Amino acid sequence: MTRDESLPLDRKLRQEILFARERVYHFAQATPLQLLSLPGSDLEIWVKREDLSPIKAYKWRGAANRMATLTELEAARGVVTASAGNHAQGVALAAKKLGIRARIYMPCSTPKVKQNAVLQHGGEYVSIHLVGDSYDEAVKAARSDEQSTKAMYIHAYDDLQVMAGQGTLADEIVLSGNGPFDAAYLQIGGGGMAAGVSTWLKTYWPGIEIIGVEGIGQASMKAAIEAGRRIQLPQVDLFCDGTAVKQAGELPFEICKSSLDRMTTVTNAQVTSAIRTLWEGLRCISEPSGAMGLAAALAEKDRLAGKKILVVLCGANVDFLQIGRIAQSEGSATRLNRTLRVRIPETPGAMLNLLNDSFSGIDVTDFQYGKTDTENAWPCFTLSADSAEALAAIPEKLNNGGYQWEDVTGATDIDFRAIPLRGDLLTHPAFLRLDFYERPGALHDFLAKRISGNANLTYFNYRQSGERIGRALIGLDFPSTFERDAFLMAMPPQGEGYRLCEPLDKETSARLASSGKI
């Protein structure tokens, strides 16, 4: 096949995808297309598993295809690139395979898992240079290197051969025999993958609806299409770090403005929910950017009923520590949540009365409280239920009980667990480390059967952990050391809904009581 340079851009891209077929499979093999199980839904979603590639992302395709086209002289000069992580791994994979030296510039915030993977794939052929806090700063440094060393710059998305390499994943979808699809949701950073994939899908299935998906704080392609020209965003949200690009690529923009039927945006919470859906349906862990297409499809599931949908899980290079943060972030829960701060009298038994009066049958997933006043307490409860109606009924119960309350869902002090405690209001405190069994009523049973007499609840820091237990740090205060010591001696190591990890020693309890915040 010979290259026709007179073709318009979209036809050139189709031609280059055919050429890419001859190159990319020297570096890696095709990835599977799998049906995602969604219990109780008639929505048929197929997931292209690019997380199962050698670099756990689709970026190897474009990098390998581009580097395979280098002349002998260009290869001898070496290559330089900038990447948030996945493109860097693709360059590293190709560099080692082709014996080409590569210098890779990455933001300082690039997850360690991606840095380590670059070194693993590239070995002695690659070097990493961490520069700045954003992808754009890394690009600036890499371009400066290109100018001074005459190395070949391998762009992450704004390159015809790179876009064509990404388009081979769409070729595999077409050849899978599982199509045609009614719609495809394609995530966009710079736009290279969306350009290549949408072009190829439209070639074989002209009736398919292609939806470009961006994070709500990263929507550079959406801004460009609406303005009719590329827009430079002042800043981008970094939660979906693989798509955190301030300006869409020039070539991808020229393709996407005609190949995409529409654009949509997703929130970080929707992405988190999609990550959980992928885990529950396919037992795979996606990086945030990798789940954006699914997040958009799930957000529009009502209009997609009965249709066959395609999404691309474009990467799984997520830092292990980030997995924990994602699991506990907004959007990860399968049930509905609401956080309320309620005023109760600072008297023994008041907390139990609140649970009995207003929260009966409601799951308390987070409980934050510290004593700051001698007359009133303001405990904060995150309540969980299967229906919006159950949560909506709580305010009326609180009002009927004469409680003053406020909704603090998403409040900064709640998210960061800034729990105040006035140590000068405590006389003889004791702090306990407890585990609560994750079952309805465990907290109620503990308060009802264990916190009695002169024991005054002064501190409570509890949240569900996703395990079969929820961990809590509890502070109690007593009128005398005798009553405190008697309580601790009489408390069973486990009981109704709880197990005692340990009572903290007197020195630790005193330190916690005087710290002001725990």
UniProtKB/TrEMBL annotation:
Cofactor: pyridoxal 5'-phosphate
The organism's place on the tree of life at top rank: Bacteria
Residue ranges occupied by any ACT-like domain in the UniProt entry: 338-410, 430-505
SUPFAM superfamilies tied to this protein: ACT-like, Tryptophan synthase beta subunit-like PLP-dependent enzymes
Annotated PROSITE patterns: ACT_LIKE (PS51672)
Lineage of source species: Bacteria, Pseudomonadati, Verrucomicrobiota, Verrucomicrobiia, Verrucomicrobiales
UniProt key word Amino-acid biosynthesis: yes
InterPro entries associated with the record: ACT-like_dom_sf, Ser/Thr_Dehydratase, TD_ACT-like, TD_ACT-like_sf, TrpB-like_PALP, TrpB-like_PALP_sf
Family: Belongs to the serine/threonine dehydratase family.
Protein's organism: Luteolibacter algae
EC number: 4.3.1.19
Pathway terms, separated by semicolons: Amino-acid biosynthesis; L-isoleucine biosynthesis; 2-oxobutanoate from L-threonine: step 1/1
Catalytic activity of the protein: L-threonine = 2-oxobutanoate + NH4(+)
Record's keyword terms, sorted: Amino-acid biosynthesis, Branched-chain amino acid biosynthesis, Isoleucine biosynthesis, Lyase, Pyridoxal phosphate
Full protein name: threonine ammonia-lyase
